[in-house]
Amino acid sequence: MIDHNHAIRIEHIVESALKCDRGAMAGLVDADYFEENPRDAAVMIIAARAGDLDEKRVEGFACDWLTRCQSVTQETVEEFCIDLKTLLD
Question: Would the pTM of this model clear 0.85, i.e. be above it?
Answer without folding.
Answer: yes
